[in-house]
Amino acid sequence: MVRAELDKQPSDVRRMFDSVARRYDVTNDVLSLGQDRNWRKAVIAAVDPQPGERVLDLAAGTGTSSQPFADRGASVVPCDFSLGMLQVGKKAKPHLPFTAGDGTQLPFADETFDAVTISFGLRNIVDPEAGLRELRRVTRPGGRLVVCEFSHPTWAPFRTVYLEYLMKALPPIARAVSSAPDAYVYLAESIRAWPDQRGLADLIAGAGWDSPQWRDLSGGIVALHRATR
C-alpha cells in the first residue's frame, strides 16, 4: 500500500506523491468535481502577480498551478520534493524551471521572491509552521504569502455530508481514476485532521507573517489565507 500516515514522515509522503504523479491532475479534477480549476483562479487573483515579479510556487507538483503565473508574465519557480511529480511536470511543461526542494529547507537564498504560494501542500509538510517560516525567509520584506488549503465547511449540516464524502465516497472514486488509490485514504484523513480557518491563521501569525486573513471558497471546503512579510 502506497500511502503516508498522519505523522507525515517525509520519505513516506514523497513516495506517496511519486506514486500518484502520473494521473494526479486528472484525479484531482474528478475528486473535486472540477472545483480545483476555480480554486487555482482564486490563488492567482490573490497573489496578483505582476510582470517580472519572482514567484515561488511550493508543492507545485506537475506545475498545473504554476503555469498561470508564467502566463501573467511573472518569473515562477515550481518547487516540489516529489521527483515523480517534477518529472511528469517537466515533460509536459519543459519551459518551467522545476526545482526539487523540501518545504522545511528550501534551496533558495533569503529574500528571493516577491510572492510565495502553496496550494494543498502545507498540511503535507511534517512541520507546517517550519514550512511557513521557510517561506517567510525566502520572501522579500513587503512580499506576500497565499496559502490555499482544505479547511472546515462553515455550515454544520454540509460539513457532515462533506466528511461522509471524504471517508466513504472519495476512496472508491480514487480507485477508479487514480494510479495509486490507497494514497487518497491519507488525503481524507489529513483533511479531517487539519486546523480550521482561524487555526491556520494563528499558525501563519506564529511563523512571523503579518496580518493573516482568509476567505472561504466552496462553502469553506477550501480557505484562501493571505499574509505579508
Automatic annotation (TrEMBL):
Pathways involved: Quinol/quinone metabolism; menaquinone biosynthesis; menaquinol from 1,4-dihydroxy-2-naphthoate: step 2/2
Reactions catalysed: a 2-demethylmenaquinol + S-adenosyl-L-methionine = a menaquinol + S-adenosyl-L-homocysteine + H(+)
HAMAP family given in the database record: MenG_UbiE_methyltr (MF_01813)
Example of a GO biological process term: methylation
PANTHER family the UniProt entry points to: 2-METHOXY-6-POLYPRENYL-1,4-BENZOQUINOL METHYLASE, MITOCHONDRIAL, METHYLTRANSFERASE
Protein role: Methyltransferase required for the conversion of demethylmenaquinol (DMKH2) to menaquinol (MKH2).
Family: Belongs to the class I-like SAM-binding methyltransferase superfamily. MenG/UbiE family.
Top-rank EC class of the record's enzyme: transferase
Keyword Isomerase listed: no
Residue numbers binding S-adenosyl-L-methionine: T62, D80, D102, G103, S119
Name recorded for this polypeptide: Demethylmenaquinone methyltransferase
NCBIfam families attached to this UniProt entry: MenG_MenH_UbiE, PRK00216.1-2
Entries under InterPro entries matching the protein: SAM-dependent_MTases_sf, UbiE/COQ5_MeTrFase, UbiE/COQ5_MeTrFase_CS
Gene3D superfamilies the record matches: Vaccinia Virus protein VP39
EC identifiers of the protein: 2.1.1.163
Pfam families attached to this UniProt entry: Ubie_methyltran
Source domain of life: Bacteria
Coiled coil: none
Keyword Methyltransferase: yes
Annotated GO MF terms: methyltransferase activity
